[in-house]
Amino acid sequence: MKVAAEFLLFAERALVAQLTRFPPMDVLVRQTYQAGVGSIALLTMLIVFAGLNLSVQSYATFERFGGQDFLGMFAGIGGVRELYPVMAAVVCGARIGADLAAALANMKISEQVEALEVMSVDPMRRLVAPRLWAVSLALPLLCGYADVIGIGASYVGAVYQLGLDGGTFMSQLREYVGLSDLLVGVFKGLVFGWIVALIACFHGYRAAKKDGAEGVGVATNRAIVHGAVVCIVLNLAMSWVLYG
Amino acid sequence: MRRLLESIEGIGAIAAFFGDVVRTALTRPRYVAETVRIMWILVGRCIIPVGLAVAPVGAVISLQGLEIFRMFGLERMLSSLLGTAIFREYSPALASVMVAAQAGSSIAARIGTMRVRGQIDALAVMSVDPMRFVVVPGVIACAIVTPLLNVLTNILGVASGWVFAVPLGGVDHGAFVEHLTAQITPADLWVGLGKCVLFGTSVGLLAGHLGMRVKGGAEAVGKAANDTVTQTIVLILLVDYVVSMALLGLGL
To answer: In A, residues 83-142, which contact B (CB 8 Å cutoff)?
Structure first.
């Protein structure tokens, strides 16, 4: 309960710091590059397998009703709207969030944050706000990228592995998956990115000097787990509002 | 080229480690009490995150599945899609991912910390094999706890799917239950549990491997914990895909 209240206070301060001043361009670019480009190799590998797997699994399920021809629709709707954005958020969020939490917790236990305060530099503006901007920029881009890679992978799985007709797959996809679905995926990425960065910064910021090196470990672990759970729950909430 | 060689070397090291773990696990002495203690800790730490992560997935499948099935007027059939998707795929995969995030990283951090503090070497000096006392109990605990949690998440996933299908989606309760019981075979359940044993073992193995390899200080420990999470997730998805292909080939 106390932690939740602390988190809300932290969120408010962070949001104010984020919105009052746009971070310097070079800091923003560096942070975004670290968060985004660092995750691309991992994300590509994951989404290729997830896309192939989505085709194979839904083929196995739909075969029971003889609905294999609707694979394109299912892989498109299930993947673009739900699976790929959530996977991008959980996996890249785990990587990015762990990095952020570890970096901030390290600064905290070596009293660099206090040093900033002494120099009357607001750590919220200096440390937290650029990271929030950077991850909220990087994760939507990663989600869009995941959507494209994932559809490609499930096409390859459906056509070259399961021997379905490529034209049927594409026409199903065109008919049932529109630009709006892609935009929803990117929008979800924006929300996930912001919340993952906020949770990671919060846990990093809570580490105190007395926790020592173990505090860093605890902060990263919590950042990963809480970030993943919150993304999955928020995904349900957003899907419910948008499609329910 | 160098990175390729390094990754091949890494795979070889994991294979050798796996062989070591299996050999140690099959011979005496066994530290059963230590294994049970770790299992309890893992259950306590994982049960809430795993439950919270899997429950919304059942709801999302109902939400989107209902929209798709409505196009054909087949809402009654929703529960068979929900059941197979939860039992075979999403519950095992997601439960294992969360076990990797929560338990795997803490096991890697624990072993890494012991390594940094020289406790692993101290065990060896006391002629307690660290593989036997530290690594193997972790692997076995993960391999047992993951399927146990999977039973819980199966129930949670189907229950949250039911909430979104029956009271909120307007599907008939009788039809939901009927299609669920008619379409779900014991094979679906066993496939899911088998996957969980496989995934859980790989979580424990990677955590042990990366933890034992830690050299240096606190930063290396943190890196081992993070690497455990990302690498196990990749491994889980890869294994999941191979298993799905194999099952499709076998017609299960």
So the answer is: 90-91, 94-95, 98-99, 102
In a domain, B70, yes or no: yes
Rounding to the nearest 10 degrees, give the CA dihedral for residues A87, A185, B62, B189. -20
Establish if B2 belongs to a structural domain.
Answer: no
Quote the pTM value. Answer: 0.87
pLDDT tens digits for A182-192? 888 889 999 99
DSSP conformation letters of A24-43: PHHHHHHHHHHHHHHHHHHH
| Helix intervals (H) in chain A | 2-20, 25-62, 71-76, 84-109, 112-118, 123, 129-156, 166-176, 179-206, 212-243
Residues of B in contact with A215 (CB under 8 A): none
The ipTM estimated for the assembled molecules is 0.84
Provide the residue range defining the domain that includes B110: 31-250
Amino acid letter, B134 = V
Query: Does B190 fall in a domain?
Result: yes
For residues B239 and B191, is the Cβ–Cβ distance under 8 A?
no
- Residue B99: how many other CB atoms lie within 10 Å: 27
Contacts of B238 (CB under 8 A, 6+ apart): A49
Give me the number of domains chain B comprises: 1
